[in-house]
Design brief:
The chain is mostly helical and 301 residues long. It is 57% helix and 0% strand. The chain contains eleven helices and no strands. The protein has helices spanning 2-8, 35-59, 80-84, 115-132, 139-158, 174-190, 199-215, 221-224, 229-251, 259-278, 285-300. α2 runs parallel beside α4 (115-132), α4 packs parallel to α6 and α10 runs antiparallel to α11. The protein is globular and about 65 Å long.
Amino acid sequence: MTGRYLEAIGSPVYGANPVTAERPGPQLIPPPRNQLELGDRILTFWSIYSRDKASSIITGFASAIDDVHDDIITPLPRSPREYETNNVRPVDVERLSDIFSPPPGRAAERRPDTIFSSQLKGLTLLGRARAASPSPQTEQWERINAAIQRFLNGLFQTHPSLDSNSATQEPLGVGLATAVAAGYTAAIFLNADLSLTEPNVQQDRVRWAKTMATMMVGLPLEEAIKACAVFGYLLGKAAEILILHKKVAVARGLHDVDVELTEVDDCISRILEAIKSLTITYPALIYHVQRLVDAALRAEV
């Protein structure tokens, strides 16, 4: 319904029927008078988009706002401060399609993404990796995989404290944690089929899940409870990967004293504790936690 409404009013932020400066389409509200008003509209649209995308990811239903054809023309949001000071530079204007086909030579000149923009990119990549289900190493697969790698590399360059070996002590906020978790979960989904035949790919999926668990060390409880429900879903997917990895390891005769298996146990515990903290805000996640706990216990057998 959301997508149909935006299209019906001829919204300049949704391009099911291309809307341009030359052909703006019918408008229920006048054009924005300044960058501040434009920023409010941009942030409103992306707030709707993020909730729609999160709901789609959690429930498995199709998104109301279709982004598969890269026809959303609304610029990704900049910081409110840039809109307030009339300081949005043309070089910083980025659209959703640029995630997959970045304009050449602009990366070095652009200001860093906002946390909200990073979340939007992560959720978009996750939705695309899940919905497309591309065959491994096809052109579509390579396009999405390259976008995921660019996204994660950009986050680690912009936020050095995400590196566990970094001496930077920047506190980890739930917004940044959600963006990183969405990127890694997108990679986990995209490589699911390939992991069945390529052991190294399955090791990568376990490594990504471990990285998500490591982030929980720097995430205070007061931050965790501010997260949205999709954050619990992302952590749950990481826990599932680690629990399956442990189950396979136990079946092969490894013991709890094994260093690698002990590390996996620690990662599972961190993720479960983080999801439990989210149940303060989202009681519906209690069932999710119990399901993962039961799976972890069965992996011990």
